[in-house]
Amino acid sequence: MIENQIINKAIDFIFAHIDEDLSVERIAEFSGYSKFYLSRLFKAETGESIYSFIKRCKIEQSAWRLKVEKKRSITEIGGDYGYSASNYATLFRDYFEESPAEFRKRIVEESVVHPFFHGTKKTLETFEECCKKITVENLPDFFVLYERRKGNYHNLQHDWCDFMKHYKDFVTPKTIFIERTINDPSITNPDECLYEVCMTVDKNDKRLEVQKTAATGITSKAGTLSMPNTMILEGGKFAVYHYKGYPQRIYSAIQSFFCSWLTKTGNKVDNRSGFDVYRKIDDETLYMELDICIPIV
Predict the structure, then answer these.
(1) Mean pLDDT in each 10-residue stretch from start to end of the chain (297 residues)?
(2) Is 236 left (phi over 0), alpha (psi -120 to 50) or beta?
(3) Is 203:230 a contact under the CB 8 Å cutoff?
(4) What's the Cα-to-Cα distance from 85 to each of 54, 63, 97, 273, rounded to whole Å?
(5) Which of 36, 39, 144, 173 is deepest in the core (most CB within 10 A)?
(6) What are the residues facing 177 on neighbouring strands?
(7) pTM given for the model
(8) How many CB atoms lie within 10 A of CB 40?
């Protein structure tokens, strides 16, 4: 788990400005710490240098857009992340060992044969099937308490159990449980995916204040009391896939959303975060209903 609030705020800043020219100096200035201190702390907490993290996020996010925004040119997508056409091609090949064009040709098939794609019939839903499950909605902002992790999405069930134990006192009848999976495991190494388990909370809850931390009983790795991490998941216009089924089929539903619906509609995805809103879970059967929300312009 990435517990340090300084690093989590730095990561939030990187996500919010991923399409801009980001430097270690700029992130350190935002964080209020020297670049040397922040760099040491970031590497210790995430296992990556700030520079490597930014580079990886930019190239992997651009790759995801190559996958889902088929109507946009490679040059245009690379330009969204500040790359010239030649620089983008070089950096992309260095990272993925193939050109952007080669990647774009094979990534849908790669997504379908991925180990996360369960079921004997490994086919995507058709565009028409997806349309029956997808609506375009304006969602509100969500103020959430969260835990951020780096690892494999297979750990999510265990992570949710731990999260609920830690923060059970914050749960009310109005609580909404939200999951934000930052990476597409058909693009990112499945063991290096970033994700967050979240729950909505009242931003005026006094237990979220620094001076009231002792009331939460939450401890950091160092054994000291720590304030829960909070953030705002920005609302706005989203395409929402209304999923009904079991956990093992969520990946295939998401890939159908990406590869059948997004690619054919030509919608442009913006830099807000996508997330999943849990609407119903049966603890015994694990049947669930959730809204898979992707921000679109």
Answers:
(1) 93 93 95 96 96 96 95 95 94 97 94 79 90 97 96 93 94 96 94 96 86 39 61 96 94 94 90 93 94 96
(2) left
(3) yes
(4) 19, 14, 17, 26
(5) 144
(6) 199, 278
(7) 0.89
(8) 13
E strands present in the chain: 134-139, 142-151, 177-181, 193-200, 229-233, 236-245, 275-281, 288-295
- Residue for token digits 């009242």? 202
What distances in angstroms separate CA 6 from CA 49, 140, 212, 227, one per listed residue?
15, 26, 19, 12
Cα dihedral sign for 233, 239, 241, 242? positive
Give the whole-angstrom CA distance, residue 191 versus residue 176. Answer: 27
Neighbouring CB atoms inside 10 A of 62's CB total 25
Distances (CA, A) of 180 to 78, 149, 233: 24, 10, 9
Amino acid at 199: M
Q: What is the DSSP string of 14-27?
A: HHHTTTS---HHHH
Going by C-alpha positions, the residue among 139, 121, 128 that lies closest to residue 239 is: 139
b/e code 161-200 from CB counts within 10 Å (16+ = b): eebeebbeebeeeeeebbbbbbbbbbbbebebbbbbbbbb
> What's the burial of 237, exposed, middle or buried (CB within 10 Å: 0-12/13-18/19+)?
middle
